[in-house]
Structures
1.
Amino acid sequence: MTDIDCLVIGAGVIGLACAAQMARQGNSVMLVEQQCRIGPDVAWTQSLDYRVDKSLCEGFFYAIKRYFPSIDKKKLFPGYSGIRPKFSAPGQPAADFMIQGPEVYGLPGLVNLYGIESPGLTASLAIAQHVSRLSD
Ligand SMILES: Cc1cc2nc3c(=O)[nH]c(=O)nc-3n(C[C@H](O)[C@H](O)[C@H](O)COP(=O)(O)OP(=O)(O)OC[C@H]3O[C@@H](n4cnc5c(N)ncnc54)[C@H](O)[C@@H]3O)c2cc1C
């Protein structure tokens, strides 16, 4: 096996950021990931139905095949689904996110963050600093 300076396990947003930073500093980096996750996909819904529509696999297959030609359709399976409230309705321009602190609810330490798409909430230092100031 080749000598490496740094082994990063997990290619989520944090693993990718760590690996990129280590590489930027001149280290040789190996990044390992246990699975290949493709997506997400989004659709508007008005009902609380969390079942994943398996017919979507077909569209995913052809989309993935464009940059991963050896993809095996039999190995594709749905992950999970979730329902997220949005500020804007279908057909409207995307709305910006909103952060409300204790001044809105009158409760010290309560900060609500609305409408921030992944991984904005977990990866934005500016948002983290703002929330930290609000909750002081
Ligand atoms: C349904 C859902 C909705 C979310 N919505 C938002 C949102 O709107 N805004 C927001 O900011 N954040 C959101 N998050 C949170 C955000 O996605 C996570 O905080 C962020 O992805 C965490 O990144 P991570 O790199 O720490 O972990 P992950 O993204 O979980 O990455 C870890 C990786 O490590 C891999 N791994 C684990 N063990 C091993 C192993 N032994 N060997 C090899 N690989 C391994 C996993 O397969 C995975 O790919 C959401 C999360 C979920 C589940």
Note: The CA atoms of residues 120 and 127 lie 8 Å apart.
2.
Amino acid sequence: MSVSSTLDKLKKAVLEGDDEIAQGLAKKALKEKIEPLKVVNEGIVPGIQEAGELWKQNVYFHTDIILCAEAFRLAMEVIEPKLSAGALAKSGKIVIGTVAGDMHNLGKIMVNATLRGGGFEVIDLGEDVSQDAFIQKVKEVNPNILGLGCYMSTTMLEMKEIMSRLNNEGLRDKIKVMIGGVPCTQEYANEIGADAWGKDAFDAVEKAKKLMGVS
Ligand code: B12
């Protein structure tokens, strides 16, 4: 099977929410020696992006998206360790998580993958992460960057409060803060005093590297 055929099939499996098929194709792509980042960028990501478009057009519903999310997750599960292993230099250490009250994680999974692909060590705290848990982890592992994922307007305040907590705990000067997710904007990052906003997974890597002064 040709490279493009495997990646096309992988994209289709994610788009159609065929989780086991997507996972099998991700493994197959690696066996065919396709570069892990290429599998992400040309197979898995286009599938979920197209699913997002269909959602916007009201063609896909919640149930469809949940299936796509699972297919995305299982395919990424195969590729992610290879991205970490393949990363040569360590660009820096990032603690990342979805803020409290928010369970969305697809965007964060993608950002994790591209950050790892970009040479960052990523410590993912998961979803619905409390302010205490973020602060505790920052104290414990002393990351270069804290990444906050927020996907609903109703959970945006969490990011502002985390910024205050970082200030109050004397941690603000020790790390950079990067925010991302659907309702986030550069303006909001400025408003709460974050260092960067990542428009998408690729912008997130660029901004993170810029914050670290690496290219
Ligand atoms: C998929 C989805 C779900 C799935 C989530 C599956 C999962 N495992 O994540 C399910 C069905 C479970 C779900 C549930 C809900 N959802 Co929903 N969901 C979406 C949807 C359709 C797509 C989100 C997504 O995954 N996009 C694809 C990813 C790849 O894109 P992304 O998240 O934008 O991420 C990119 C960038 O933002 C950036 N990025 C992301 N994170 C980060 C982090 C950092 C640090 C950086 C730098 C960059 C970055 O890079 C990513 C990759 O390029 C959006 C609609 C939309 N337009 O976004 C609604 C949406 C986010 N959901 C919404 C709502 C309301 C809900 C529910 C409350 C629905 C309900 N009534 O039950 C629940 C919330 C439950 C909870 N407490 O969190 C609303 C939020 C509205 C608001 N108030 O702002 C939206 C906007 C839909 C809408 N228009 O109404 N949802």
Note: The radius of gyration is 17 Å.
